[in-house]
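Hey, I'm writing a tutorial for new members on how sequence and structure tokens pair up, and I'd like a real worked example in the thread rather than a made-up one. If someone can provide the structure for the chain below, I'll link this post from the tutorial.
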Amino acid sequence: MYAAVLLSNMSESDGDGDGESDTEVYEVAVVGGGPAGLSAALYTTRLSHDTVVIDRGGGRAAMMLDTHNVIGVTEDVSGNEFLGTASNQVEEYGGDVIRDFVTEIEREPDGRFRLSGNSTEVIADRVVLGVGFSDERPEPPLPRTGKGLHYCLHCDAYMFIDESVYVMGTGDSAAHVAMIMLNFTDEVDILTRGDEIEWSDETQKLVDGHPVDVIHEDVTGMNKSDDGWLESFEFEDGTVREYKGGFALYGSNYNTELAEALDCDLNDDGTIVVDDHGQTSVDGIYAVGDITPGHNQVPVAMGKGAKAGLAIHKELRTFPKSLEELEAEGPVAESDVPGVSAEIQAAARSFGDD
């Protein structure tokens, strides 16, 4: 392993010494400020590693009107509030959070990584990719996301108990989600919106064996209540069907451009290949959250981020020195400890002060 950089917010001059090309140096750079990336940053910062989060904003979690399935977080907390609190925590522990879009990551000759954004450039020993994916949206008319249009069955099925529900899509996933929703309600329609069915013959037999209606006419209009929630869809045959809400299943677009440029291996489904701790096929590059295989859930993403943070700490921590290092360098002097930067020391001393 290459040597860790022990001091953040130090700068390296890439030019002729005039200071105009100074680049901030960190031990850990996290790309993406979702639940996974922020959890990784929280762990690396609290474990004494100088960390920066570079976040372009938005993302799946930021779209949540309410936070579901997260122990200790009440339903009335929006995604933006949830992420804002997490960002503040990282900064209070001594990490940096920057709003920018990372456009390029390159490995330096010394093994570190240079991250370039629209207005930011940093160097880091380890990089964590937490850039997630984007759900493919169907064509309008559509209700507002979170108020009748949903993408996460495991997050939102509870709110549709005993309600009329639609599932948009033509593939196997749409058919299976529709059948799963029968665990919560007895009124489930699949809306193909005039497109040809793409699910398998076996799936068709399953659909035939469940009380699910398949509506082939396209949606031509929509009615909403005063609070913005969906009330009903109008169809091209003139019918109107009432729905509390439903799910769109048209696939996902994984944000793997940075990973591919770094030659990280991808799975057949478009996710990044990682080990149990988030390490990709490229040494020093980690990936966490929805861009990796597994359930797309906030608590799962947070767990992935935590595991990556712990793994990075084990790689980068200064102490204990190995026997080989002690033999080569001699005993650790009292003046060499603690192995934490001045920035994190200062943050820790002032933590909790008003």
